[in-house]
Design a protein that fits this description.
Length: 236
């Protein structure tokens, strides 16, 4: 690729107009998949019970399974924000989520700063849930960072796993192996409340242990979704 072509590609990728256009296409595709597939949705009632009790939740999803996160929350009844990086992929996800009605919290330079942390925790205490990919924005894939544990400790709200799987899909050659579901397939959307207790005080070692437990829980939920649509093994 020539230098001129590379520069043009970067300009297009950094263009707000181009990002909104691509986000609209991705959003329309997700709606098409959901509308045309033999769809099963399981576990949202658990989330509503948690919302009734705690006011807000922290919803986690592996980066690989982001394509159907526009449907991870009932925005007609509840408010939810999504945490995104300011990298190109993160900005694209932010545009998609805003297209569907989510509020977006961008991370400057991909780092969660003090101002963003205060905004998120204030929102959780006021009944505004937050969605995050614990392995984002750059991986390693399916290795959970401690961020959701820190939020759960501070706000004392539950953590909820959201995932999906599709019988037929494409896999993008990205670090997360993004699952891109195809229309007219078998589709399973799945929510589960993580039953672990996150106390208001934690040592670094305890936080790391809980992050590992959350990672195992999310892997198990992704596998369960894969099995629901007919896959015998985890689609990694």
């Amino acid at each position: 690729m020539t230098k001129t072509a590379t520069t043009l590609r970067k300009r297009i990728a950094n263009s707000a107009f181009a990002n909104r256009a691509v986000a609209a296409v991705f959003g329309a595709w997700a709606q098409l998949v959901r509308a045309t597939s033999r769809r099963e949705e399981e576990g949202w009632a658990q989330v509503e019970t948690a919302l009734a009790t705690h006011g807000a939740v922290i919803i986690v999803c592996w980066h690989q399974r982001l394509m159907m996160t526009p449907f991870m929350f009932d925005l007609s009844k509840y408010r939810c924000r999504s945490l995104t990086s300011d990298a190109r992929a993160g900005r694209l996800v932010g545009h998609i989520h805003r297209h569907f009605g989510y509020e977006s919290v961008p991370m400057p330079r991909g780092i969660l700063g003090a101002a963003e942390m205060r905004l998120i925790l204030k929102g959780l205490r006021e009944g505004i849930s937050i969605g995050v990919s614990p392995d984002g924005p750059r991986g390693p894939a399916r290795v959970a960072k401690s961020t959701p544990i820190q939020w759960a400790r501070s706000a004392q709200v539950p953590v909820v796993s959201f995932t999906f799987s599709a019988k037929h899909y494409l896999t993008w050659p990205t670090w997360d192996r993004l699952i891109f579901p195809l229309p007219f397939t078998k589709l399973h959307l799945r929510w589960r409340v993580w039953e672990a207790t996150v106390p208001p005080k934690l040592s670094e070692a305890e936080t790391a242990t809980l992050a590992e437990r959350l990672q195992s829980f999310m892997d198990a939920e992704a596998l369960a979704a894969d099995q629901k649509v007919g896959h015998n093994t985890a689609q990694l």
